[in-house]
Design goal:
CATH architecture: 3-Layer(aba) Sandwich
Protein name: Cephalosporin-C deacetylase
CATH topology: Rossmann fold
InterPro entries: AB_hydrolase_fold (IPR029058), AXE1_dom (IPR008391), CE7 (IPR039069)
Helix content: 25-40%
Shape: globular
CATH superfamily: Alpha/Beta hydrolase fold, catalytic domain
CATH class: Alpha Beta
Oligomer: single chain
Number of strands: 9
Pfam family, one: AXE1
Structural class: alpha/beta
Length: about 325
């Protein structure tokens, strides 16, 4: 498809209006305190995936509400000393998938933790974690699940899970807790932005950097007016049925607690972003909305002729280089 959003020079200057709730920080402090009240209880169990040069582990830890969250941990078998680590969050509809999908980073010398997503896994990668918090009317997937209240919204649970995942990784005996990078693309990029904002003070050591590729859930009020593709189409469909303006605004007001623009303003660790100018799922201007709001040192990789998959394998090489530069 042709470029449909703002020209690149305008994207580089674009800074959206922020709709930030007055109790934004208090809401997240309360959420993380409630989550931390449950023992982390992280358990790493080695499984045989057939990789002679890698140690592969099935992971369970307590996320939001004390709910069991699963993950994978992979690391080089013969590496000495505490390892740098990368924590990865997954795109919409996916989960931790299969171990064979995650061999690149441990092959480069990193411990790699992949967090499962509660209730997802019917899209592009399987998940093995249920969501006991599911409730209330919603359309299709997860974007509108619990959308009329920030306390009950789906992403409150997921973002809290993401913080606990970093804590679990930092407690692994093979990991150097002072050399952890967080990463994600699309929905995973939204989760990574949240983790960058919320982990300082909530985990033993603040992560040293974050990778944010084509983030979802950023500048949402603009996104739903630019694209009709999933997942934003789920919110458009919900708004089209719930036509009461007050109810519509209540939904947007809920999302404001989770919007990447507001979370980016609280991220201070070094960040590597990526945007694709033909992306019709996460519009380029919404990606730049998060990028230009990000408070820390940052760089942007631009893919002028790519869609939502952005740089693909070439971007993975950039992930490795960025993580190495920090660890």
């Amino acid at each position: 498809m042709p470029q449909y959003d703002l020209p690149l020079p305008e994207l580089e200057r674009y800074r959206p209006e922020r709709h930030e709730p007055a109790d934004f920080d208090a809401f997240w402090s309360r959420t993380l305190a409630e989550t931390a009240a449950h023992p982390l209880a992280a358990v790493f169990t080695e499984v045989d995936a057939g990789f002679t040069e890698l140690v592969t582990e099935d992971v369970v830890f307590a996320g939001f509400g004390g709910h069991p969250i699963r993950g994978w941990m992979l690391r080089p078998r013969h590496a000495e000393g505490p390892l740098p680590a990368v924590v990865t969050y997954i795109g919409y509809g996916g989960g931790r998938g299969h171990l064979a999908e995650w061999t690149a980073l441990p092959s480069a010398g990193f411990a790699h933790f992949v967090m499962d997503l509660r209730g997802q896994g019917a899209g592009h990668r399987r998940a093995d974690t249920v969501d006991p918090g599911v409730g209330g009317p919603h359309f299709g997937g997860f974007l509108t699940l619990g959308i009329e209240s920030p306390e009950g919204y789906y992403y409150r649970r997921v973002f809290a899970d993401a913080v606990r995942a970093v804590e679990a990784v930092q407690g692994h005996p093979a990991v150097d807790p002072a050399r952890v990078v967080i990463s994600g693309g699309s929905q995973g990029g939204a989760i990574a932005l949240a983790a960058a904002a919320l982990t300082p003070g909530a985990v033993p050591v603040t992560p040293v950097g974050v990778i944010v590729d084509v983030p979802f859930l950023s500048d949402v009020r603009r996104a739903v007016r630019l694209v009709d593709t999933a997942p934003y189409s789920e919110l458009v469909s919900w708004l089209g049925v719930q036509i009461d303006p007050e109810r519509q605004e209540r939904a947007f007001s809920t999302i404001d607690y989770f919007d990447g623009v507001n979370l980016a303003a609280r991220g201070t660790m070094p960040a590597s972003f990526a945007v694709a100018l033909l992306d019709d799922i996460c519009p380029p201007s919404t990606v730049y909305g998060a990028y230009n709001s990000y408070a820390g040192e940052k760089t942007m990789t631009v893919y002028p002729f790519n869609g939502h998959a952005n740089g693909g394998a070439a971007r993975i090489a950039e992930h490795i280089a960025f993580a190495r530069s920090l660890t």
